Amino acid sequence: MLQTTLYRGSPGWLPCFRPPPPSKMCQLLGMNCAAPTDVTFSFTGFAARGGLTDHHADGWGIAFFEDKACRLFIDQQASATSPLAEMVKRYPIKSKNTIAHIRKATQGHILLENSHPFMRELWGRHWIFAHNGDLQDYEPDLDGSVYHPVGTTDSEKAFCVLMQGLREAFPGAQPPLPELFERVGELTRGITDHGVFNFLMSNGQALFAHCSTRLHYLVRRWPFSTAHLVDEDLSIDFAKYTTPEDRVAVIATQPLTDNEIWTSFEPGELIMFQCGDVAARMQIPVPERVLEKLRNPALDASASAPCGGVIREALAAGAADDGDDPIDF
């Protein structure tokens, strides 16, 4: 069953998510919305994990759709100190589908071309993809493929395989989303045998999220309430900015807020989000060696030792505040 965790940890005994210890994984963030939605609140907390509250300093990126086209920002610097990340926090992002990633390198050098999300074209639309994990002995045959990696990561290779597999299955045009979802599941099954394959992928119409080991989500809907970030002392009352028609699904490696109820993905679960809610789900077998990494993170090559407190203190001592934090959601 899907698991939620409640605890009596705030004034008035309000139920809220029990924040986990600092993550040892790269970090994923996705948003799928019923209407174009501002992502800066979630991104502000997320970006802090790139070297401030967590140890993922090998690059970051964010991609968000505006109709069929997509804006993509990537940087090989740590997101907590990146001037580009500061710009994105203040950029008026309004999108129905957004994917962001902060990287802890396991394969490939710390280079711009190895920063997620990756982007390709299929059926006249942009597709974006970000991966958290480590695929071992993964050398897919891409000879004759339309898609080839620019960088040297296992992640980009897997994305090329997904894109080529979809193109071959539906060479003429994009199928209805239920058929597309089934094919994404079949292709995912062929990759998961190689290791940890947590990923987010979107074509601007839906967002696909697969969990090998760890991923969480929540759906915000009417009546909206106040949310408080785990990684920043920042809150927002969504009721002031929303209508009954608004609905937002947020997907993250680790929960971003400490006063909302987040749902854990089951290992092997693939979910398609559409219009800010769960539209379809399926279960894909997870190899036992991958499940062992979930039980014992020390075995996971995609893990890094948490050192958030040390990094936070060092940055606080050496960095000046250059402006007010954004309060949009």
UniProtKB/TrEMBL annotation:
Gene3D superfamilies: Glutamine Phosphoribosylpyrophosphate, subunit 1, domain 1 (3.60.20.10). CDD domains: YafJ. One of its GO terms (molecular function) is transferase activity. InterPro entries: EgtC-like, GATase_2_dom, Ntn_hydrolases_N. The keyword rRNA-binding does not apply. It comes from the Bacteria. Pfam families: GATase_4 (PF13230). This is Glutamine amidotransferase class-II.
